[in-house]
Amino acid sequence: MEKKKINVKDFLIDNNTYVIFLILFIACALMSDTFLRPTNLINICLQQAGPILVALGMLFVILTGGIDLSVGAVTALSSSCAYVLMRDYGASLVVAFAVALLVGVLLGLLNGVLVAYGKMQGFVTTLATLSIGNGAALIVSQGAPVRCSDVAGVSAMASKDYGYPIVIGCIVIVIIMALVQKYTAYGRLVIACGSNSTAVQLAGINVKKYICSCYVVSGLLASIAGMFIASRTQTASSTLGKGGELDAIAACVIGGASLAGGKGNVVKAVIGALIMALISNIMNLKGVPAYPQEIVKGCIIIAAVLLQISTDRTESAV
Fold this sequence. Notes:
Blueprint: H1 8-14, H2 16-31, H3 38-63, H4 71-89, H5 93-117, H6 122-141, E1 146-147, H7 165-183, H8 185-195, H9 197-202, H10 207-231, E2 235-236, H11 244-254, H12 266-285, H13 290-317
Helix pairs in contact: 2-12, 3-7, 3-10, 3-11, 3-12, 4-5, 4-6, 4-10, 5-6, 5-10, 7-8, 8-10, 11-12
């Protein structure tokens, strides 16, 4: 029986996201003595528990060929609503969390209905809801941070004593989303809607329903992310998720997702988010100012897109 020869080139093309992550991780470890310290690695995990969920929601929208620019506003609005309820009305963490999820689902549903059934462009629709969400978050929070350190369970969400619940929660959600994408009809049909929506529609499948549901998923995950991010400081604000949509898109693109739709992977999107985190972390450890960091992020996105184009050409040539 002949053994299959491993084609190194094909392997690198298929797994370029993992290879980049591994190389970057080693480089960070060599560049800084404090990088591999448990406190630093745990800090990275805590910081990324929220952004990873935003990236996963964005991925499902991108798989349909859409885009969701409102995730940052959803993050801010949902957490602000929850924290105001806890601070001013004595709501429990469970009730506040449920309200945050409801806010995310409603905004996601609004996006989905307008895009799928109203036939509006995703970019324009979510740009509008981005503005609406930001304005609503400012009104709810009255333009000031909302602190809830005395509410039972809030500080525990990011606490070492309880095993870092937000990190565990993030891992569980990632596993669920990966399983949904790979092993369910829903996951396959979402990809199919982005690849060839006409063929899917001719097969008698309601494409609009699947597109709408992806925006709902994005809103839901963004609201969970808002609660996770706010838990680290027990504070919510109208600026909590600012720029989160750009980081989420970058994570998906670095993970190999195609903005044209029909191509993307949950695990690779997570790795893409971690790559962004490693870059930010090592720049902070090396004392790089905040403004140049934005330039580096932009260059990384360009490099990731160029790598994706190169990979697509290589695959089509095979």
